[in-house]
Structures are given as structure tokens and as C-alpha cells.
Design goal:
The structure holds 2 protein chains of 2 kinds. By secondary structure, chain A is of the alpha/beta class. Helices cover about 35% and strands about 20% of the residues of chain A. Chain A is built from 10 helices and 14 strands. In chain A, strands 3-4-2-1-5-6-7 form a 7-stranded mixed beta sheet, with helices on both faces. In chain A, helix 3 runs parallel beside helix 4, helix 6 runs parallel beside helix 7 and helix 7 packs parallel to helix 9. Chain A starts with 10 loop residues before the first strand and ends with a helix. The model of chain A has no long low-confidence stretch (mean pLDDT about 90). Chain B is an alpha+beta fold. Chain B has 3 domains: about 90 residues, Dna Ligase, domain 1 (2-Layer Sandwich); about 130 residues, ATP-grasp fold, B domain (D-amino Acid Aminotransferase, Chain A, domain 1, 2-Layer Sandwich); about 140 residues, Succinyl-CoA synthetase domains (Rossmann fold). Chain B is about 35% helix and about 25% strand. Chain B contains 12 helices and 19 strands. In chain B, helix 2 packs antiparallel against helix 3, helix 9 packs across helix 10 and helix 10 runs parallel beside helix 11. Chain B is elongated. The model of chain B has no long low-confidence stretch (mean pLDDT about 90). Classes of the chains: A alpha/beta, B alpha+beta. At the A-B interface, helix 1, helix 4, helix 5 and helix 8 of A face strand 8, strand 9, helix 4, strand 11 and helix 8 of B.
């Protein structure tokens, strides 16, 4: 079992005719074909103005709506350039896409404010932007993570970071633990899916036995996740916070510091997670063993 | 992107937000002349640097000279300006090295009855911009936030419409205003919020907001910074950037598509991905070392970028060893090694280099490193890498 991505997932790529969008669509298609031979998981792409053409076997459509009508897609992977990303997300939601994975880095934060409002009353989940994506090992990957380091298993991974997630997954592999699903939620100020959304999904997923939560300094999402874990999560949870030694940056004004009343330091986050019973890895080399500790409790 | 107070005030003035009359000067004589032009009996001389705490800040060269001063004559304006310009101001936000003052803003004196605080930021929690306001204006706002958070009022701003007039009126009454001041606030606050949205600000702070004896609202100070990701739709803002306020190496790195922050230690780091880069720094510290920098080469670095990254790291004289930590995902390890070897030949390494590679094509990459005949120390995992690089300094 898994969350978000399963055998019914059918994906289109918005921005498929760009070099990066095409490259990753090809990699994702390869991975899906290995996992589910004979099944067409990556069904096409969207680039306005290039509808009716084909790129490396992927049919291209002008709009998301058209692509759904033609392919039955229920998921979109977004690689469009930052100025157009917010619009692409809203188009996908409007057309009825159920899961949107926005990889694009550098989306203006006020664009995301508008996206959040637009998505609020729609039956859609957004992951990202500025994230590595979602992978259910042995089924499909939607994003830029290297597929081969993942193995099917029972650990649910949630991370703000990209390459640090790969490091974590690799360490899990070294101690013989596979993943039910691994998700990078992105580290931007406004993101579609946060720690709590995924903790809830993993808690209710029979295929997930334990969770690994990877956070970073800044904001207070990790503290809120800790509160949620304390109240609602019965499964084992391990965690890691990057940036313990990062020096406080020189700031310009005061508003960023006073908005949440806290400074979002690693120490604060680690204390909150430990108070919620999470096994926090002391060093980034210790993420694999931390989950073993959590599960042995 | 940060901008200066005088630039922020010009933008606010253009957006219909009242600010004091002021003149920008770059010499002591201009400062004296500006005092006369403003025509009042008092004026304020304000240093223009990208840091707060200027009023309490002092100059390295003149320990009694503050960064913001009230003056009562043209001569006084000249004297203060001559002690400020070209000298280094140290405030709680500049760090010990301080910032050199090149520009001053000479402003008219304002009849201050009340000093309030206003700030707008995007709040991660509510998912939108929030206007914060407090009666406790002035420099100690962070202490207010920590000790008495109930004294700071929050109003969410509609990302499309802006601040509704009733929200402005509600805040005005909460801030203890009456009569004409409330009516002025009903214009001032929505205009400030509109400016924040229209300009893609990441911060807009007015501290203090002054209420004068006749109920006029004036932004006595203004701090504005912009969302770098949105600058593609504000091309005109590019000329507001002051490169002299930024770290030269960091600017150079950004131009090459690298994310670099200079630190005080002696172990240079080159890593792909911000989270992994921070974790690498954490691990170096855990094993008794001190990172000299944060450097994220990103997801798709090429040979040119890696070469530039090494150049930037090695241009820091404090660097006594370098650690490369790459988790190749889409970026293949052999591509990185190829770039690394090219950079090695081009730049020439005089300090130990420890390399830890994992991920796509790692076997081939390790073979290339071993066969290169270069004096490169390889590490098996994160811990091994940190121990080895710290060990080279022992």
C-alpha cells in the first residue's frame, strides 16, 4: 500500500516540451515501465500551442482539459517556468486533476497566495512547488528523484528537502528498510501539502508501519507537526532537522521574527519533536538508525 | 532584494502613502544645503544602509556618533554628515564588521504625537500576507513581541483585494486613534497593503508610523524588501539594487547559479541541495570542525559552475581543507567527477580535498577519481567524510 501514488495513477506533464520537462518525463516513464510492464502510466503532456504534436512518443495537448478527455489522466507533474507555474496549477485544478506535483523552483510567493485561495474549495491535492516530487517505490515516481535508490517497503518519508531526502532513503536501504511512499513537500513559504496532511495519510495507510520526518530551520511547520504527532499519530516516527549549526542570517526588519513569536531554530524544533515521542537523529548520518530506534520502542 | 530607506520612501510616496519630505545627499556640503532647502528649524540626518538599529548604532571611527541624528542648523547637519560619510556604522543588525555609509537622507522634522508599529509579511501559517500593528512603536518591537504578544494586532490581507476598509478602521480604533487619525488610517493602511501586493514585497515595515498633533499619519521610517522570484515582472526595481551592500563572493556565486554564504570556519564545503548542504555543515561541526561556507551547487550543475564554485571557496584565505559531498540523483556522479577533475587542473589545489559521492553512476565516478592520480581523499559515507576532512587539519 501507499499514499497519493498507486496503480491507478495516470500522469500528464505540464511543460513537457521544455528540455527539463521532457527529460524527467522520460525518466519517470522508464521507472513506471520497469515497475508495471505493459501499463501506460505517463500518458502525455501539455504545452499551449503545441497541441496535436508528439514528443518522444508522448502526445501533446493544448490544455489540461483536452489531455484528460483524451487520456484519462488524474495526475499532473508541472515543469513550466516560474512566471507561469501558478496559472498551470490552477488550470490543472480547474480541469479536474486530483494530484498536482509542482517541481518548478522560484515561484513568486504572492502567486502561491492566490493559488492557495483558488484550490481551497476544490477536491485536489497540490504537492510543492519547488520539491523533488512523490514516489511509491515499485509503482511509479512523479518527480526528479533517482528511482533506483528506493525499494518498496513500509516506511513513509516526508521531507522539506531534496537531496537530503535521497540521503535518507539511501540510509533506509542500508538498514534494509523500504518505503511505502516518499514525498518531498518543498521548503517554500507557501506549499500545497504540509507535514500534517501527510502524517494523517500515512497514519491511515495500512501499508505504512513507521514514518521519517525531515525538516529544516525556519518557520514552525515542524513544531506543528510535533503537536499533531502527539495528539493523533499512533505509529512510530523518527525525525531529523537540518541546520543545527546554521548561523542566524543578517536580517533587515523585525517582521519576520515577530510573526510567529519564535525564530524557527533547529533546537526548538528538535525539542518539540522529542517531546512528541519522535526519535530524532542526532546527526544526518544517523537517519536510518533513528527509524530503527523508533520502531524498537 | 533589499533596498534603502530613501528608495522605499520614494516608492511609498508614489503609491500614495505619506512620508516626510527629504533630500538624498552624498557629501557634507550637500547635507548643509539640504537643511536650508527643507526650510525648518530642525531636520534629521539618517544614514542609508541595509540594516536596522541605526539610531542606537555607533561609528567605528567616531564612537560617540549615532547613525540617526536630529540637527538644528545647517552647520550641525554638515558636521554630523562629515563624521558619517565614508565611515563604518556598527548596529545590532550589521555584525561586528559594520557597514560603510555612502549616502544620507536629510528629512524635515515631524511633529510627533504618537509612534506606532506597522509591518507586513507573508505568514506561512495562514498562507497569506498579514498586517501587524502595535501601539508600541519604535525600536524595541521584538521585545514587545516576545514579552507581550497580545499587544501586536494581526489582520490577514486578502491576496487579491488587499486590506478592506473595515479592517483598517478596526485596527485604527484598536491602536487608540480617534477623529481625523482614524479617517486617515482608513486610507493609509489599505494603500500600504496595496503597495505590498502590487510590488511583490517580502517585507514592508513602517516603524515608527507617526501620528501628528493634527491627526496626520506619516511613515517616519520604511523598510522594504522584494521577493527575488517576482523580479521578472518588476524590471524597474533592478536599478534600486545596491551591490556595495552585498557580499562580493555571494553576488558572484548567485550570478553563476550557485547559492553561497560565507562563514567564519576553515573547511570549505561544496554540496548539491540546500538541505544536504546544511546537514554537511552540521556533521563537520559534530566532528569538531568549522565550516567556512554554505555552498549549494543545485540540481544540475555543469563543469563551469563546479569550477566557479571551487574558485569561490578557495578565494577565501581561511579555507584549509575542502569537502565535496554529492548525492547524485538526476545529476550523475561521473559528470561531477569530470567537472571536479577539470576544475582541479584549472585552479590547482593547495589544500586537502575530501570527496564523498553517492548516487547515479557512483561506481564509474569512483573509478575515475582513483585513476586520476590526483591527491584526492575519498570517503565512504557522510560520517567518514566529516572525520577525514577534520582529520586533515589535525
Amino acid at each position: 500500500m501507499s499514499i497519493l501514488v498507486n496503480k491507478d495513477t495516470r500522469v500528464i506533464c505540464q511543460g513537457i516540451t521544455g528540455s527539463v520537462g521532457l527529460f524527467h518525463s522520460q525518466k519517470c516513464r522508464e521507472y513506471a515501465e520497469e515497475c508495471q510492464p505493459g501499463v501506460n502510466v505517463f500518458v502525455g503532456g501539455v504545452t499551449p500551442g503545441k497541441g496535436g504534436t508528439e514528443v518522444d512518443g508522448f502526445p501533446v495537448f493544448n490544455t489540461v482539459e483536452e489531455s484528460i478527455a483524451a487520456t484519462g489522466a488524474n495526475t499532473s507533474m508541472i515543469f513550466v517556468p516560474p512566471p507561469f507555474c501558478a496559472d498551470a496549477i490552477m488550470e490543472a485544478a480547474d480541469a479536474g486533476i486530483e494530484l498536482i506535483v509542482a517541481i518548478t523552483e522560484g515561484v513568486p510567493v504572492l502567486d502561491m497566495v492566490r493559488v492557495e485561495r483558488y484550490l481551497a474549495d476544490k477536491p485536489v491535492r497540490l504537492v510543492g512547488p519547488n520539491c523533488p516530487g512523490v514516489i511509491t517505490p515499485g509503482v511509479a515516481k512523479i518527480g526528479i528523484m533517482p528511482g533506483y535508490i528506493h525499494t518498496p517497503g513500509s516506511i513513509g518519508v516526508i521531507s522539506k528537502s531534496g537531496t537530503l531526502t535521497y540521503e535518507a532513503v539511501w540510509q533506509l536501504g542500508n538498514v534494509g528498510l523500504g518505503q511505502s511512499t516518499a514525498i518531498g513537500i518543498g521548503g517554500d513559504p507557501i506549499i500545497g501539502t504540509d507535514f500534517i496532511d501527510l502524517l494523517e495519510l500515512y497514519e491511515n495507510d495500512p501499508g505504512t508501519e513507521a514514518m521519517l520526518v525531515i525538516g529544516e530551520i525556519g518557520g514552525n511547520a515542524e513544531q506543528q507537526a510535533a503537536e499533531y504527532i502527539k495528539e493523533h499519530v499512533t505509529k512510530s516516527v523518527a525525525g531529523f532537522i537540518a541546520g543545527v549549526t546554521a548561523p542566524p542570517g543578517k536580517r533587515m526588519g523585525h517582521a519576520g521574527a515577530i510573526i510567529s513569536g519564535g525564530s524557527g531554530t533547529a533546537a526548538e524544533k528538535i525539542a518539540a519533536l522529542e517531546a512528541a515521542g519522535v526519535a530524532v537523529a542526532e546527526s544526518p548520518a544517523d537517519m536510518g538508525t533513528a527509524i530503527q530506534r523508533a520502531m524498537a520502542k | 532584494m533589499k533596498i534603502h530607506e530613501y528608495q522605499a520612501k520614494q516608492l511609498l510616496r508614489d503609491a500614495g502613502v505619506p512620508v516626510p519630505r527629504g533630500i538624498v545627499v552624498k557629501s557634507a556640503d550637500e547635507a548643509a544645503k539640504a537643511f536650508g532647502e527643507l526650510g525648518g528649524t530642525i531636520a534629521v540626518v539618517k544614514t542609508q544602509i541595509h540594516a536596522g538599529g541605526r539610531g542606537k548604532g555607533r561609528f567605528k571611527e567616531h564612537p560617540d556618533q549615532a547613525g540617526v541624528v536630529l540637527v538644528k542648523s545647517a552647520d550641525e547637519a554638515r558636521e554630523n554628515a562629515s563624521r558619517m560619510l565614508g565611515n563604518t556604522l556598527v548596529t545590532i543588525q550589521t555584525g561586528d564588521e559594520g557597514k560603510v555609509v555612502n549616502t544620507l537622507l536629510i528629512e524635515e522634522g515631524v511633529d510627533i504625537q504618537d509612534e506606532l508599529y506597522l509591518g507586513i509579511v507573508v505568514d506561512r501559517e495562514s498562507g497569506g500576507p498579514v498586517l501587524m500593528a502595535s501601539e508600541e512603536g519604535g525600536m524595541a518591537i521584538e521585545e514587545v513581541a516576545a514579552a507581550t504578544p497580545e499587544k501586536i494586532f494581526h489582520e490577514p490581507i486578502d491576496g487579491g483585494y488587499g486590506l478592506h476598509p473595515f479592517q483598517a478602521t478596526k485596527l485604527a480604533f484598536r491602536l487608540g486613534m480617534d477623529g481625523k487619525a482614524v479617517r486617515n488610517a482608513a486610507r493609509f493602511l489599505p494603500q500600504l497593503c496595496r503597495f505590498f501586493l502590487d510590488s511583490d514585497c517580502s517585507l514592508a515595515e513602517v516603524n515608527p508610523l507617526v501620528v501628528t498633533g493634527d491627526g496626520t499619519l506619516i511613515a517616519l521610517d520604511a523598510k522594504v524588501s522584494f521577493d527575488d522570484n517576482a523580479m521578472f515582472r518588476h524590471k524597474a526595481f533592478a536599478e534600486l539594487r545596491d551591490l556595495s551592500e552585498e557580499d562580493e563572493a555571494e553576488v558572484k556565486a548567485a550570478d553563476t547559479g550557485l547559492s553561497y554564504v560565507n562563514l567564519d570556519g576553515n573547511i570549505g564545503c561544496l554540496v548539491n541541495g540546500a538541505g544536504l548542504a546544511m546537514s554537511t555543515m552540521d556533521l563537520i561541526k559534530l566532528h569538531g570542525g568549522e565550516p567556512a561556507n554554505f555552498l549549494d551547487v543545485g540540481g544540475g550543475a555543469n563543469a563551469e559552475q563546479v569550477t566557479e564554485a571551487f574558485r569561490i571557496i578557495l578565494s577565501d584565505d581561511n579555507v584549509k581543507a575542502v569537502l565535496v559531498n554529492i548525492f547524485g540523483g538526476i545529476m550523475k556522479c561521473d559528470t561531477i567527477v569530470e567537472a571536479l577533475l577539470t576544475a582541479y587542473d584549472k585552479i590547482g589545489f593547495s589544500v586537502p580535498l575530501v570527496v564523498r559521492l553517492e548516487g547515479t553512476n557512483v561506481e564509474l565516478a569512483r573509478k575515475m577519481l582513483n585513476e586520476s592520480g590526483k591527491d584526492i581523499i575519498t570517503a565512504a559515507d557522510l560520517t567518514d567524510a566529516a572525520k577525514k576532512v577534520v582529520g586533515t587539519l589535525a
